[in-house]
Amino acid sequence: MRLVIKDLNDKPDILKKQSTINTQNQIALSGNTNLIKDSVYKGTYTDSEGKTQSSVREKLNKYYFHKCAYCEVICKAEIEHYRPKRGVEEDENHKGYYWLAYEWSNLVPSCRYCNTEGGKGNQFPIMGPRVISPSLDSLGNLDVTQSLVSSPNLSLEKPFLLHPEIDDPSEVLGFTIDDEKKGIKIVGLDNEVKRGEKTIKICNLNRDFLKLARKKNVTDSFVNHINSMFALNNQGVITNEALPKALKIAFIEADVQSEDFTLEYTLLRKYMISNEERFEQIVISQLEIST
Length: 291
Prior knowledge:
Blueprint: H1 13-16, H2 18-30, H3 38-41, E1 44-46, E2 52-54, H4 55-64, E3 78-81, E4 107-110, H5 112-115, H6 152-155, E5 173-177, E6 184-188, H7 195-202, H8 208-234, H9 243-258, H10 266-272, H11 276-282
Antiparallel strand pairs: 1-2, 3-4, 5-6
Helix pairs in contact: 8-9, 9-10
């Protein structure tokens, strides 16, 4: 997960249509979740080859670079409702945040594993008072300003789940080598509130595939690069005088990659080079330096 700056005015066309706005208002006033159509919040259309596409996914890909908002895996994302549109697992009497079904700030891209298969589903635990109904304006219609994910009334819920467009994951999520030393595990850094720990659990961010993929695609690549330099140094190809410069170049390359949001696992890439302690824990500990 990384912090994403999404332009809330840059909505997919289908979410700006008057018919969509009218239906959203009707859903909010009636509380009838049967009126929610996935063809609207997905923005489905048929392309020139007769295949079903999603204009909402395409717009989200502009900001998320075709990656899952939670695990940062490149995927054909599902359109995920940050606040569940139908029902809340932690409250059997809650009908879900039905009035946010077509709200642009409530939509993020998610792989199916973070979203449905062992992942978030309808989970939405909070620390504050839960909002159970939409806010209305002076005319009795849905107050869309109070439907924004950053609006005061929704913010008072104090969700445990991090929102990639509101929260900075680097403040509450970190990484460590797992106990078997076969993968990289994500951990919560906020010991008191535990939003990091809860987010990891909600989205199942330590499933085996992710731990192995983080190590293989990020840390192993960097470690192997450094190991090869020491090997070339032992062979006399890289001199002792040139070795520090070569290692510095490798570190600079890793820093550049950590800012390349088209790559997977950018939070890990940034974390492992953010300070000496983390670099030693994630990278140095894996080196095979022979003398």
